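Batch job 17 of 40 flagged for manual review because the log was empty.
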Amino acid sequence: MADLLAKQGIYFNEVDKVCILEPEISKQTNDLKEICQNYVERLDEFQKIANKFIEMVDQLGREVENQKIKAIGARNILQSMEKQKETNQQQLQALIAEKSIELERLKIQLNSLQKTEMEQNEIINELTHC
């Protein structure tokens, strides 16, 4: 009787339920369904991992950008300090040059005053010895 029903497309499964699919095709369909469910679960898991990875890379990119901005700021400060140092050095060199010129002028004035003092001392000595 099972063969007669099978020819008509009616089958019984292992719990004696009436089915319209062949047991082998039904088993393959169920196996494929399980495989598909497993695939979807693994795909969802992969998507979660990929999203976490993308989030980590984005965070790392933001941190790199922040460090880059800090480095540029530090470089600019350093360049500014170097320029200030050069300016200060030039000002000090100009001051040294001014002081050197003033020193030379004062030396000449000292020599002149010493010469005048000697001449005056000579005149005083001549007047007091006479």
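Reviewer: the log was empty due to a logging misconfiguration, but the result itself is present. The first strand starts at residue 11 and ends at 12. Unflagging and moving on to job 18.
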